[in-house]
Design a protein that fits this description.
Helix content: over 70%
Main location: membrane
Keywords: Cell membrane, Membrane, Transmembrane, Transmembrane helix
Shape: globular
Strand content: under 5%
Structural class: mainly alpha
Radius of gyration: 21 Å
Number of strands: 0
Order of helices and strands: HHHHHHHHHHHHHHH
Subcellular location: Cell membrane
Protein name: Flippase-like domain-containing protein
Largest sheet: none
Number of helices: 15
Membrane topology: Multi-pass membrane protein
Number of domains: 1
Distance between the termini: 20 Å
């Protein structure tokens, strides 16, 4: 039975990032099972509406679909950097490749019904890199409100500029903005996190969040929304209006529909809710048939983007994993 060295315990307590070690057979089996289940639910979410989706794809050109996918990958990268900046501010800075693997592979869990699969996956994968589980959980649960707040602000600004009347039916959603602005004061967040950790019987966070870290996360999240909007604009301009106003409208429409969808936690990745909201938001610029085609094709492009990012991050991170021989030599030294 391997003996735990004091320095190993100290590394985990302080959140030091260490090279990932080869996973044990049981842990590897659990990870494979997680990926298969996530992929299965993701495929089911697409297959159950495949007739409508294929009809939507038939109305779009391949260049627009490729451009939409490129924008989605950039948007997902913005989401990863949002989470990574929060984790670093909490005391666990991860290299980009390692952080991308933890984030993107863990995010596949959003396709499984329930809200905890992504955070559980990120906690276990982060632990292999020396990130304490409470810190991983804190970064995960902070990412969602950061994206929600930035998404509401982005949607309010862009929709008001593009088509002022579009945002009026959803004015009640924007009432959350001042509430979230107060909640993002670091002293408030740190007090809430400390209270939650005490209730769970955990010790306090070693490093509190700072205003600079929060602003960095909000900046990355905003860039992510712009990229998501470009993803939607590549589809909308094929079936409806074009130009700068259409691009601004697409940015606001996607951000608003995502914010409405994320408020529903009982379906995988907000499946269905976001599409319904997107069709409603796009009603001023697209007929119902075109709006449904765009919403469903957007769903498929995002699923493909999730798979591309998870696969690319996994392959990139494997290049940094030391071989068993190197790991053994490092431990003996």
């Amino acid at each position: 039975m391997p003996v735990e060295r004091p320095e190993d315990r100290r590394e985990e307590e302080e959140g030091a990032v260490r090279p990932a070690r080869p996973a044990k057979p049981l842990r590897r089996l659990v990870r494979v099972a997680f990926l298969l289940v996530a992929l299965g639910f993701g495929a089911w979410a697409v297959a159950r509406q495949w007739t409508e989706i294929s009809a939507g794809f038939a109305r779009l050109s391949w260049p627009s679909l490729v451009l939409s996918l490129v924008a989605v990958v950039a948007a997902l990268g913005g989401g990863m950097m949002t989470w990574r900046s929060l984790l670093a501010d909490l005391g666990s800075p991860l290299p980009v490749r390692a952080g991308a693997k933890v984030f993107f592979v863990g995010q596949l869990g959003k396709y499984i019904p329930g809200s905890l699969w992504p955070v559980l996956a990120q906690m276990e994968m982060g632990r292999e890199l020396g990130v304490p589980r409470p810190r991983s959980a804190a970064a995960f649960f902070l990412t969602l409100p950061v994206q929600l707040a930035s998404g509401l602000v982005v949607s309010a600004v862009t929709l008001l500029v593009a088509l002022p009347g579009t945002a009026v039916p959803y004015a009640w959603v924007f009432l959350l903005v001042p509430v979230l602005a107060v909640a993002f004061e670091p002293r408030v967040i740190n007090a809430v996190l400390g209270f939650g950790l005490r209730k769970l019987g955990r010790g306090p966070l070693e490093r509190p969040l700072t205003r600079r870290g929060m602003l960095t996360a909000l900046g990355w999240a905003t860039l992510g929304w712009i990229a998501y909007g470009l993803h939607l604009a590549a589809l909308v301009t094929q079936l409806g209006p074009s130009g700068a106003s259409a691009v601004l409208f697409s940015i606001g429409a996607f951000a608003l529909s995502w914010c409405l969808g994320i408020m529903t936690f009982v379906v995988p990745a907000g499946a269905g809710v976001r599409e319904v909201a997107m069709v409603a938001v796009m009603a001023p610029v697209l007929d119902r048939g075109s709006a449904i085609a765009v919403a469903l094709c957007s769903r498929v492009v995002i699923v493909i983007g999730d798979l591309v990012c998870a696969g690319a991050a996994g392959l990139a991170a494997r290049r940094e994993v030391p071989s068993p021989h190197d790991a053994a030599r490092e431990e003996s030294g």
